[in-house]
Design brief:
The complex is a heterodimer of chains A (about 180) and B (about 80). In chain A, about 60% of the residues lie in helices and about 0% in strands. With about 180 residues, chain A is mostly helical. In chain A, strands 1-2 form a two-stranded antiparallel ribbon. In chain A, strand 1 and strand 2 form a beta hairpin. In chain A, helix 2 runs antiparallel to helix 5. In chain B, helix 2 packs across helix 3. The longest helix of chain B is centred in the last third of the chain and has 10 residues. With about 80 residues, chain B is mostly helical. Helices cover about 50% and strands about 5% of the residues of chain B. A two-stranded antiparallel sheet of chain B has the order 1-2. The chains are: A mainly alpha (about 180), B mainly alpha (about 80). At the A-B interface, helix 4 of A face helix 3 of B.
Chain lengths: ~180, ~80
Amino acid sequence: MNEKKRNRIFWLEGITERTVLNSLNDRTPSRFRQQAARRRLVVTMAVLIFALAVQILLPTTKLQSYIEFALLAVVIILYFVLRKAVRHIADAPNELLDERQIAVRDAAFTVAYRLLAVAFTGYVLLYVAHDGLRDLSVDSDRTALGFMSLLISAAMLAGSLPAMVLAWNLPSEPAVED
Amino acid sequence: MSRSKEDPVFNCVEELRLQQGLSRQQLADAVGVHYQTIGYLERGEYSPSLLLALKIAEVLDAEVGEIFSIKPFRKGK
C-alpha cells in the first residue's frame, strides 16, 4: 500500500517539513557550506537592511523610489538564501531537529534577540529623526514606500537575525561526510 | 550540550564506529540524530547529552565510560 506522506506545514515557523528535511540532508556542494562565504552573506544582508532603514532620511527623488524597491527585493531574496545557507535550522521546529541542532538554534536566538533590543533603539532614534525632519519641511514621504521602508527593515531584521547569527557562528562543513 | 572549552569531553566514537564497520549515517540513524551531529561529536566539537551517549554506547556495544572521557584517550587503546 502506497501512502503519500503528508508534507506538514509549520505555520508559526513559516516552513514545511519537506523543506527542512531536504535542506538538512542536502549533500550537494555549496559555497555556503564555508563559514567565510556565509559571513559575507551576513554582512551584505546587514548593510542592505541598514540601507533600507536609513534611506528615508535622504532627499526624495523618483530614482530613490526605484532604489528603495530594489533594496527591498534584494533583501527578501537574500533572506531566503540565508535561510537555506543554515539549512533552515534557524526556522525549524524542535521535532525536526536533533539535540545539537536545537542547541545551536536556541543559542543563535538568544544572541539575536539581545542584538534586536539594541537595534530597535536605533529604529526609535531613526523614527524621531524622520519625524524631526518632517517638522523642518524635509519631505521624506515622497518615495513609494516612505516610512513603511523603516518598518519593513525592522521586520526583515527581526525575521532574519537568528539565521544571520547562526550563519556567522556555524563552522565550515567538512568536504566529505560519510 | 555544547562543548565547553574549559571542560572538553574526549571520545573514541570514530574508532569504535569503524571497528563495527558503520558509516556516520548508519550510526546517526541508529541513535536518531543527524549525520553531521556524529561528525561534530567525533571531532570533539559537540558533547552529547547523557541519553545520546547511552544510545551510542548501546549501538557500539561498549560502556559510556569506555567511549567518553574528560581525559584524552591514548592512541591505539
